[in-house]
Amino acid sequence: MNYRTASARGHAGVFAGVAIVCVGLAGCASSDDITGAFSAPPTETRVSAPHTVARARPQTRPAAPATTAGHPDMTPRALARDEANFSRCVAALEPKARAAGVSAAGFRRYTAGLKPDMSIMKKLETQPEFSRTAGDYVDMLVSETRIRKGREAMAQNAAVFAEVERNYGVDRYVVAAIWGIETNYGSARGSYPVIEATATLACVGRRKAYFRDEFVAALRIVDRGDIPESHLRGSWAGAFGLTQFMPTAFQRDAVDFDRDGHRNVVDSVADAMGSTANKLKRGGWQPGRSWGYEVVLPRRFDYLLADKNKRKTMREWAALGIHRPEGRPMPPGKETAYLLLPAGAKGPAFLMTGNFKAILSYNPADAYALAIGHLADRLRGGGPFVQPWPENLRALSRNERAELQKRLASRGYDVGPHDGAIGAQTRAAVRDYQVAAGLPPDGMASGEVLESLRSGS
Asked: What's the DSSP call for residue 305?
């Protein structure tokens, strides 16, 4: 989903101990669950390694809703004002739309009688935040059902996937994995009219500046005939298509792969898969390389090396005692990667290549990119991760994460804003505290760290 964050891309790329609120190409434009991807608990069956005994995990419950009621543009009076001014606001965007290539006749046609959908404001104002660990998140998305459906979808569209891979050099299984995780291979695309949804958000509430460009881009899509207006439906934030593009992302990355004169990522599997591969290629995908590798760490490992800024060659990692499980060979020695511990020192470890970063360009959440890579490997016939996820790991709620930040700040650590969003600054502070407290310095904002802070140790 591409606005999703887009915060592109901001705070969502955090793992265990942090709620994951962003999934998909439409990406993320903020830490909001702007596509509603976590509006309900998952129901799919988890995948467990066949040689392990199934175990109960701590119950994951919805955290307190993340609200923005205090924002001046989200008060009842402000929303009523914006609703009353909606038609004038839309009309005022005509010069912007015309400058972007929307015809005068098209603008009049697609905005005539347009009304705001005020129910969207409730989704924007109060978004359910389901706090999940990285293990829960990956297992939720990489289910046996999704694997089976993905293999069927790839078989039905084998020629398309082969041609997409030839043209863009992007692993066909990664493209298929994005399709599977974004819309469950097309079965869950959303039903909101994109023009109405983006117009609402462009003229009502606290995200007007961002959504004006999305609204104009949506008008341009239908005006130039790429996708019929009646087919342009998606999430409440405007993400649409088989792999969930936001309108502006569509303008940048969509391609007419089936060569019918239209870039239709809603109705054409070829256009959707080609556009997805194009986005990944633009994000830096390197042909013939994996997204990453599960690895095993030696005892007494220096966890300070688990840092995205500390890239080493595979040969250098091997010299530190890192190896792949089950005797699998290490990748070429000159390839570089960084070490990622999605569940902290007690969970599985991964060496991430530049292609993992390319997946992050689609959605900046580490857990999302890990799920994409793992689903791709399962689709091609690979097995589950060998190392188990920690049994008693619990994701912190937003309030608990904010408390952790405040407690760190009270001890003199620079964590940035006390907003419950765990970014690089907070992770660095957590790591420094862990060193001082004698904990493994994996940088994870976990329940263990919070309890240590509470106890005053």
From this structure: G
Strand 349-352: give its sheet, edge to edge. Answer: 292-295, 349-352, 336-340, 312-313
**pLDDT value at residue 55:** 35
Helix axes 424-437, 398-410, angle to 10 degrees: 60
Residue listed under structure tokens 């992050």: 360
Look at residue 129 in the predicted model and tell me its pLDDT: 55
How far apart, in whole angstroms, are the C-alpha atoms of residue 312 and residue 81? 55
**Domain range summary for the chain, segments of one domain joined by +:** 68-125+193-234, 292-379, 398-455
Residues 238, 218: contact at Cβ < 8 Å?
A: yes
16, pLDDT greater than 70 = no
More confident residue, 116 or 397: 116
The strand ranges marked E within 41-197 are 62-67, 126-130, 192-193
Tokens standing for residue 352: 């991430």
Confidence of residue 226 (pLDDT cuts 50, 70, 90): very high
Give the pTM.
0.84
3-state secondary structure of 371: helix
What does residue 338 show for φ and ψ, rounded to 5 degrees? -120, 160
Question: Is residue 61's pLDDT more than 80?
Answer: no
Nearest to 350 by CA among 289, 285, 292, 286: 292
Indicate the CATH number of 398-455 among 3.15.10, 1.20.140, 1.10.101, 3.30.450.
Answer: 1.10.101
